[in-house]
Every structure is written in C-alpha cells, then in structure tokens.
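Lab notebook, bench 4. The sequencing result for the construct came back, and we need a structural model before the next group meeting so we can plan mutations. Quick request posted to the team channel:

Model the 3D structure of this chain.
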Amino acid sequence: MTLELPGDSPVLSMPWIITFGPMEDGDEWEPVVCGPYERQHALALAEEIVADEELMAVVEPLLPLVEIERIREEIAVARALADEEADEDQDTDLEVDLEADEYESFDGEDEDDEYGDEEEDDEEEDDEEYGEEEYDEEEDGDEEYDEEESEEAEDGEAEDGEAEDGEEHQHAGPPTPEEIRAGFARIAARLTGG
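Done. Here's the predicted structure in token form:
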C-alpha cells in the first residue's frame, strides 16, 4: 500500500519508510518500521518482502516538519479524517439497525405483556417482605459511609496539592527550525556511516 502521486509532486523527493505488519487480525506481533529510503528503493524493498511472505507493507513519506504550526496542522487534518470515518461508520450502523427493525416481529411484545404483570407482583411481595424500616437503616448507613469517603477524598486532595506546590515543572520549549535541521544532518551522517 502506498500513495498514488502525480509525477511532479514534491512529496516524491521526501524520505520514505516501510511498515511491515500482519496480514490477518489473528496474528499478534508489533509492526516493523524500516527506513528512511528514497521512494523507489522503499517500493522495491516492500515488493520483494511481500512477494515471499504473507505480510502487509505500507510505504509512506516522512514529514520532516520543522515548524510547530505545520505539525499542528497535520494533527488537525488527521483528526478530521478520523472523525469523518467515524461518522461514516455510525451512518452504516444506523442503516443496519433500521433494516433489522423492519423485519422485527411483534410476538416479543405480547410475551412481555404476558409476563409483565407477574414481575410487578413479585416486586410488590419483595417490598412487603423487607419492609420500610430496613430500607431506612440502609440509607443511614450509606450517609455515614459517604461522609467518611468525602473526608478521605478531601485529605487526599490536600496532599496532592501540597506535592504539586512543592514541585515546579519546567517546560523546556521546542527546538528552533535551525536546530532541527542540524539534527537532520547528524541523523543523515549516522545513516551513511559518516
């Protein structure tokens, strides 16, 4: 699996990775990610491996983004696509439910009515058997238990607040685009053995 791109797409010149994973849902093992490669090399490697074994191979470009806003944009796009797919799945489920309702018989409703009165009589007998006094005692016990729980929760919150006040979390901040590009150069040097 890979993207179908026009011949003049700038994405073609990006580094590409291959993710090898199980073909069937029953197989449980972590996917293997390889790369980065040039696109043609990635496609050739993926085809070679998949030809010998029943695996799924996904060939996709790496996005060497250096600006924070561009990364946020890509995250927003991915979330929007996921929401669209979820909406489509819900629409499909709704159609299936409607079709099932069309073929539903009314015999089940009659059965419910037939046994409904018996269940109500049983509930009334249970209420008379236990009486109102026992029910009131249980309520009093719940109130005492709730008070104890609320006191413990307040004590725990106070302890957490003290721990948070004592520790100051420092945010280092993102690297600059220049620092990221310098990191790319160091990675490239390691990959080429330089």
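Helices lie at 39-52, 68-102, 107-166, 177-191.
Will bring this to the meeting.
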